[in-house]
Design goal:
The complex is a heterodimer of chains A (about 160) and B (about 110). With about 160 residues, chain A is α+β, with helices and mostly antiparallel strands. Chain A contains four helices and six strands, in the order ββαβαββαβα. In chain A, α1 crosses α3. The radius of gyration of chain A is 19 Å and the shape is elongated. Chain B is of the alpha+beta class. Chain B has two helices and six strands; from the N terminus they run αβββββαβ. In chain B, the strands form two sheets. In chain B, strands 1, 4, 5 and 6 form a four-stranded mixed β-sheet that branches. Chain B has a two-stranded antiparallel ribbon with strand order 2-3. The longest helix of chain B has 18 residues. The chains are: A alpha+beta (about 160), B alpha+beta (about 110). β2 of chain A pairs parallel with β6 of chain B.
Chain lengths: ~160, ~110
């Protein structure tokens, strides 16, 4: 098989089964049938894997921020696990982009290495995709103390 | 086996398949698909997430699955389990053998 470029469109082989004529899901063809993994699945696994790393506070969606993201999620019944994650999936490779906030005090370079490692591990073992690149965009810091103070003052 | 290939039997088969697939550990649920509804339609029944295509010489099945997230999840292995359970349930219902089973993972669910 040839090297998959980053954005492989699956050519739909076989006579018109419409249901599988969808773009971009990783497929594994065996004699007993196909196994397809949708991009949503890849994105969610990547999101969960990033969150598993201690020091990652939250993943944040693109654009206007939490309010709009929250509204969009309510409307579409999406759970937030793939917000802040963008995946590009080819036949056997994937690229992942994250937007995330981290806890204040962690070493961002070390954290990035850990996120990269965990995401690559999880995706490789769960979906068989090898992850070519993981781009991490740290968009904000999270201060745990600030939150605590704020709640204290309100209680008084 | 004397079972006829009456038009209604596709839905029954799909129902048997749906039950079998739901029982596979690692499967959270069947999924109705992300775009056009994936289902087998019958007289008074609709089985979402399972598509059965029966012709004279072949029996193709397509199932759409929502997987259960767990540390040990391996989607290809889960697909193999799903395939095996479908094979067994089809054989048990006496509808012959499955020629192709397509397994599509539409979603993952985390508790």
């Amino acid at each position: 098989m040839t090297m998959a470029s980053s954005d492989v469109q699956l050519q739909t082989t076989g006579p018109g089964d419409g249901a599988l004529a969808r773009p971009r899901a990783t497929e594994l063809v065996t004699p007993e049938g196909r196994t397809s993994i949708s991009d949503v699945v890849v994105g969610k696994i990547a999101g969960i894997a990033a969150r598993e790393v201690d020091g990652v506070h939250e993943l944040v969606g693109q654009g206007m921020g939490a309010a709009v993201t929250g509204l969009a999620q309510r409307v579409t019944h999406a759970d937030g696990r793939s917000a802040g994650v963008h995946v590009e999936v080819g036949e056997r490779e994937a690229a992942v982009d994250f937007r995330l906030t981290v806890d204040y005090g962690v070493s961002i370079p070390d954290l990035a290495v850990a996120v990269r490692g965990n995401v690559m591990d999880r995706l490789q073992s769960m979906t068989g995709l090898s992850v070519k690149e993981v781009n991490i965009d740290i968009v904000d810091l999270y201060f745990a103390e600030e939150d605590a103070q704020r709640t204290e003052r309100r209680v008084e | 086996m004397g079972s006829s290939d009456a038009p209604g039997s596709e839905v029954e088969l799909a129902q048997a398949i749906a039950t079998a697939v739901r029982a596979v550990p690692g499967v959270a649920d069947l999924s109705p698909g992300r775009f056009v509804e994936v289902a087998t339609y019958g007289a008074r029944a609709r089985v979402r997430g399972v598509m059965v295509r029966q012709t004279a010489e072949s029996l193709d099945v397509e199932v759409h699955v929502c997987a259960q997230y767990a540390g040990a999840l391996v989607l290809t292995e889960l697909a193999a389990l799903v395939r095996e359970s479908i094979r067994q349930s089809v054989r048990a219902s006496g509808a012959g053998t499955v020629s192709q089973t397509d397994v599509v993972f539409d979603d993952v669910r985390v508790e």
